[in-house]
Amino acid sequence: MGQVESKALEAMIQALGRKDGKIRLIYTGGVWLYGATGNSIANETTQFQPMPALAWMVETSEKLLHTQAFATAVIHPAMVYHQVGGAFSRFIDCAKQHKQIEIWKDGATRLPLIHRNDLAMAYRLLLEQPKLTGHFNASAQIGVRVDTIAKTIAQKYRSPNGFKVIPAATVRQKYRFWADGPMLDQQMASPRLQTLCDWKPAITDFATCL
């Protein structure tokens, strides 16, 4: 992905760099670029510790922030969900079929969360304010335990079988490096987005919209 994106962006820079003025660009990074935060809460000044497979995204975002072709804002969404899926798709599918929800590695793992509508508003606000550049986190809930998410979804769909914890090694064997992201214990806040854009998420409890 990194090589493909790099070539595409280089072509855009060459094509648009000859025009007068800067083009507004919003680049999507992600919460996984912060790595495991544990009891610390990542904000926009926190140093990135990306998964090796996604390290190229940090390099690309820095390149875009310094190019003369674009006025760039980099947005880092939390785990994005909605009423019937997104980050919750696997849990919801299991609950609907009354199967045990599989939690990867540890039920105490925390996931920062954001509803897709609130994320869409964050993109809109940044698009409308092209003078705002740099990194912006988008997280409505700083960190919610994954076992809390699983229990809430199981209750919503009246699934009697609850959840089970799958060892990290088993998950990695099946999903390879893609398994590492959801197993990160993370907390993330959005002070720049809230302060500079007056962004106020409408949904601050995922359970209210399931």
Low-confidence stretches: none
Strand element count: 9
Q: Give the rounded overall mean pLDDT.
A: 95
The whole-angstrom Rg is 18 Å
* Major sheet characteristics: 4 strands, mixed
Order of helices and strands: HEHEEEHEEHEEHEHH
- The CATH superfamily is known as NAD(P)-binding Rossmann-like Domain
Helices, by number, come to: 7
The percentage helix is 25-40%
Could you please say which CATH topology applies here? Rossmann fold
CATH class: Alpha Beta
- Quote the beta fraction: 15-25%
Give the distance, in angstroms, between the N- and C-terminal Cα atoms. Answer: 32 Å
Which structural class do you get from the secondary structure elements? alpha/beta
Tell me, what's the shape?
globular
Strand order, largest beta sheet: 4-3-6-8
Q: How many domains comprise the coordinates?
A: 1
CATH architecture: 3-Layer(aba) Sandwich
List the helices and strands and how they pair.
Layout: H1 2-16, E1 23-28, H2 55-66, E2 70-77, E3 79-82, E4 85-86, H3 89-96, E5 101-104, E6 110-115, H4 116-127, E7 134-138, E8 141-145, H5 146-156, E9 163-166, H6 168-175, H7 191-197
Parallel strand pairs: 1-2, 2-7, 3-6, 5-9
Antiparallel strand pairs: 3-4, 6-8
Helix pairs in contact: 3-5
How would you describe this structure to a colleague?
The chain is α/β, with parallel strands linked by helices. The chain has a single domain, classed as 3-Layer(aba) Sandwich (Rossmann fold), CATH 3.40.50. It is 35% helix and 21% strand. The protein contains 7 helices and 9 strands, in the order αβαβββαββαββαβαα. The protein has helices at residues 2-16, 55-66, 89-96, 116-127, 146-156, 168-175, 191-197; strands spanning 23-28, 70-77, 79-82, 85-86, 101-104, 110-115, 134-138, 141-145, 163-166. Strand 3 and strand 4 form a beta hairpin. Helix 3 runs parallel beside helix 5 (146-156).
